Structure formats: C-alpha cells, structure tokens
Amino acid sequence: MAMAEGTTLTRDTDSRVRFISPAMWPWVLLVYFLVGVAGSVLLDQGQRLLIQTGATPRTGTVFVVITVNIILPGLIVLTGLWYPRVLLALPGAILTLVGFALTKMLLLDWQFWKWKPALVGQALHPIVLVACIVGGLFAMLACVVISGRRRVGLADKRLRCKKCEYLLVGVNTGVCPECGAAIVRSRFDD
Ligand SMILES: [Zn+2]
C-alpha cells in the first residue's frame, strides 16, 4: 500500500512542483535591484579594463552589446525563474533599471547631492531601458513556462480547504470544520 502510494506521488504532476515561499518577495525585489547594480559595475569595470589593455573599439562594442543585451536581461530571466511570480517580473525588471541607472550615476559622480536631472539621461542609455523591459517580459514568460516545476505558493496548499484554506490534516468527516464546504480529496491525500 505504501509502495503504491509512493508510486502515485511520483507520477502526480503536483508532487514535482517546488514551492517557493510567497513571503520572500521583498528579498526578490532586492535581488532584481542588485542585478542592475551588478550589470552597471560589470559594464563600467569591463570597459575600463578593455581601455587599459588596449583592446580595439570593436572589442569594446562587442563587450557592451553582450553585457547589455544578453547578460543583463539573462540575469532578470534567471531571477524570474528563481522566484516565478508573473506579476513581480516586470516591476522587478524596472527595479533592475533603477539599480543600473543609480549605480551609473554614482560612478559618474559619487557626490549624489550635486546630481542634476541631466545626469539621468547620461546614465540611462535607451538600449538599457529596452533591455530591462524585454528582460522583464521574458522573465514573465519564464514564470509561466516553469510553473510545472517551480511555483510561488504554500507547499501544503493541497492539504487545505479549497474554499477557506483551513488546514484539513486529520479531518475525516468529509466537510470542512471551519466553513462547512465539502472536502474534495486528491488521490494522494491521507
Ligand atoms: Zn473551509
């Protein structure tokens, strides 16, 4: 019997889903922001290094294109896969953009109290803006694609009442003691 149950569990789609705690969202937004900071620093330091080593302008261009068009959106998508919540992907990508621009502004002029509005335009290339938005849209898509494996939610959701979310462990009456709704049992529930 235990064997049969185990087999059912591994065959069921739901049992393969890894649930990510919904409480993590503030940290996730921080990670999106830090992706922008990291992208900005990488771009700045990489360009410096390339100039120091006497690389050709073409190499410099290739480096910028790869960093902005592939690495930056790629990191946004990876963050989306780590915490796959569709609604958080685009705001997250905008935070990446903010992190990128703020870091660039600090690198241009660390005396932030002297910043003028024109500095924003200097720090924020339109291609970076497009890269972050596209990254956010791809991250939304990635959230949908991975939903069969990773999901933001409570791991014990299937043990709760579908109507009021009361935890139904050990309830054998067929109705929810909290709201009276009929309990629909999944086949792998006790
Ligand atoms: Zn209920």
What can you tell me about this protein's structure?
With 190 residues, the chain is mainly alpha-helical. The protein contains six helices and two strands; from the N terminus they run H-E-H-H-H-H-H-E. It has two domains: 151 residues, no CATH class; 35 residues, no CATH class. Helix 3 packs antiparallel against helix 4. The two termini are 12 Å apart. The site of zinc ion (ZN) has 8 residues, from loops.
Which keywords apply here?
2 domains; mainly alpha; two-stranded parallel ribbon; binds zinc ion; 190 residues; 6 helices; elongated
Give a short overview.
With 190 residues, the chain is mainly alpha-helical. It has helices at residues 2-11, 25-52, 57-82, 86-108, 118-123, 126-145, and strands spanning 18-20, 150-152.
Strand content: under 5%
How many whole angstroms does the radius of gyration measure? 24 Å
The rough form would be described as elongated
Task: Please summarize the sheet with the most strands.
Answer: 2 strands, parallel
The tally of beta strands, per DSSP, is 2
N/C terminus separation: 12 Å
Class computed from helices, strands and strand pairing:
mainly alpha
Are there runs of 5+ residues with pLDDT below 50, and where? 1-13
Number of domains: 2
Give helix and strand order, one letter per element, not per position. HEHHHHHE
Number of helices: 6
Q: Biggest sheet: strands side by side, in what order?
A: 1-2
Return the average pLDDT rounded to an integer.
87
| DSSP helix fraction | 55-70%
* Distinct small molecules: zinc ion
